[in-house]
Amino acid sequence: MTGPLDGKKIVLGVSGSISCYKSIDLASRLVKSGAIVDVVMSDAALEFIKPLVFQSITHRNVISSLFDYPLGNPLEHIALAREADIIVIAPATANSIAKLAYGFADNAISVICTATTAPILVAPAMDGNMYNNQAVQKNITTLKEYGIYTAGPTSGRLASGLIGVGRLIEPEIILEHIKIVLGQTRDLKNIQIVVSAGGTQEPIDPVRVITNRSSGKMGYAIAEAARDRGGIVTLITASSLTEPTGVKCIHVMSVAEMRKAVLESCKGANALIMAAAVSDYRSATITDQKIKKKKGQEKNLTLDLIKNDDFFLEVPNGVMRIGFAAETENLLSNAKIKLNSKGLAFIVANDVTQPDSGFNVDTNQVTIIDNIGKIDVLPLLSKYEVGNSILDKMLSMSNLI
Questions:
Q1: Which CA distances in Å does 46 have to 18, 246, 261?
Q2: Fewer CB in a 10 Å sphere around the end CB: N or C, the chain?
């Protein structure tokens, strides 16, 4: 399977900021993701970084002047503007933002941005109080009104030593924003998808819980895959993994909290993908204080457990329901029972005893069983690839597009 950036033509504009060293990392990440990257540098950027650095990473010529033609084509910058899938300016200084806002075209970056019909993503970076300056804020508002996307900045220690807003967001986050922007033209655009992830926790006392070994990685991978295809994603998570960029996250702990969040989020949603490992039982009593060992009872502790209600059938009609079955034996038969009892469109079953499949790993080998009896056995894939396979199946069984 190909990734969301494979073969994408990306123009990376680098303007003059000390943070342009992060653009080197961004260019490397883009190339590793399969993108074709053309770097365009402003005169000020050349004071910080030499073009050779980017050429070594992208294996392509760098444009640094309107009057310097590495390939002998004086219209090379116009060709880049026409062929680009997205133009990313990172870092974007206050000066480069002003040029875009007022339509100036006096360097290679601004000319390409003026001449393109591709989406533009701007990642601001500036020092001190510059970002909060009234003129800068007005220019950023103007860019948004033009349909130009912005990402960041964040707060932190700046080059001057000041602490404030203006720090360029990290390259891995910019990469996620690029995927989000490109996803706006893909097959899940405007489709609302709710995904659950992680293992719920049922409290016993203030320090102990009943839980399971689910890390949440599968649910997070599905959420990211849906986001990259233009979906409007709500992730309801009982995991402590880092929140995916561009995804609405609701953090829960118990089954009761997950039930409330899922049912509320499903109002108006197109599909629910329940990748969470939901606790089947909870403690009948929850003590206010930590349970202590009592004399004569040091060897045994008996808990009275109550079965949690299954809220899958409470999901509103019209929402496609997709479930998971993490099994240790009789994979197909157990999955089919769950498929039918919960009224699912299809179920994703995996044997968590298999190596490189199941909990706390980045890969999974699953079998998809739908409600008309079709069985698809997938090979071992990354969880992101499994997520895309699930979304493909979802689209094939619905009228969402």
A1: 11, 32, 50
A2: C
